[in-house]
Amino acid sequence: MRVLLSSVWIWLLAFIFVASPYSAHATDSPTPAEAEGRIAELEEKVDLLTEEMGRLETIFAVPEALELESVYGLGPAASKIYLKDKGLSIGGYGEIRLRTFHDKNGANENEDDVFDALRAVLYVGYKFNDNWVLNSEFEFEHAGTGGGGSVSTEMLTIDYLWRQEANFRAGLLLVPMGFINEIHEPNFFFGAERPEVERLIIPTTWRENGVGIFGRIADRVEYRVYVINGLNACGTDRKCDAAAGAKGFSSGGLRGGRQKGSRALANDFAIVGRVDVDVAAGLLLGGSIYTGNSGQDQNGAMSGLNLPNARTTIYEVHAQYRGHGVSLRSLWTEAFVNQAGKLSLALSLGDDPALGGGSKSIANHMRGWYVEGAYDILPSILKETRMSLEPFVRYEQYDTQRDVNSRFARDKSKDIELVVAGLQFKPIPEVVFKVDYRHFNLAQGSRADEVQALVGYLF
Questions:
Q1: I need a surface site. Which of 86, 87, 156, 378 has the fewest CB within 10 A?
Q2: How do residues 126-162 score in pLDDT, each as one tens digit?
Q3: How far apart are CA 314 and CA 335, in angstroms?
């Protein structure tokens, strides 16, 4: 873009010179007074063109350098638009992953190794003026729509920037919970896969339609509060359909209840809020909570089902430290679903309790947590390097069947310990290579270990 603008600038100057009566094509010799006047006229035109070219570059030029800075909790690539004075911003990220299975216990014997262009994401933002900002995120998954891939809008917001302490947002919002849901660019989390705790209990990537406020107070406390459409426990595109079956809440978590902004049922709304505090240099503490009904008034003859309100509440607390080459994270989350037993029966997820119950029911209570640590060993080997090489390890424990209705059987295969160990290399901050080993330990049953490799980028 800047090359194009420079070319336009050169051609305009050439046109001015050729078209000017003072150019070499002029046949009359001007008097000294006329020459001085023409020179002054040319200088005025050049000044006007310089000002206009600067304005056009500000509006249309895409920045060539990326400041890896998070603004209002968003990922750095998504934050670029807030760092501009005005005009267009384009960014993005992507991931290509190889996953292999190592079947030591006879589990997953039919699983194929998979090499997947996992996602390519484009951020497009436009800053109309000092107050109004458009921001958007478009995701292309699995290299297209033919083989199970998809194209989706992950974020689409209009912000009114009033002041640092209080701003307003409306549109398709990223739900502000956990570490990964808002900052999910591969350069900013360890491992080739996002933490399972933040996929199954906090159903990352989670976005819903809504409105809210956000800001930063005393340059230390950051907050976001949104009102959004609630989850849909049934999880179908529009209405619960007894014939189609349920694709929403399950014994494996809440992930299927996301409506993703697509013709979302809004009979039930929810509220979500988050606070983060910069306690000291490099140390952040925070938490968030979500609560709202998930039944979406789907009951009676129209749906063929009778869903309860199914109020769903999720909370999480988290801590992070980064400094001196050390990266530490921890997160604890719990989810509660009221009337989970009745909901399971309505969605045919459990056998008739009179016959002994089933093990596919939605839990009343889910819990998960993880701790993670990494250390950048490269600065001690190569002084003044921009590269990083970080061994890391993460321990996760999660149970999406921690407590179920007494009439149903608990599925103990959902009580899982996961250890992830690996290595992350960044030749430049915008490009990352990862390799890791994932070992699962189930309270009941078995699951194959996995080795993964990933290349990711952002711009």
A1: 86
A2: 999 999 999 999 999 999 887 778 999 999 999 999 9
A3: 4
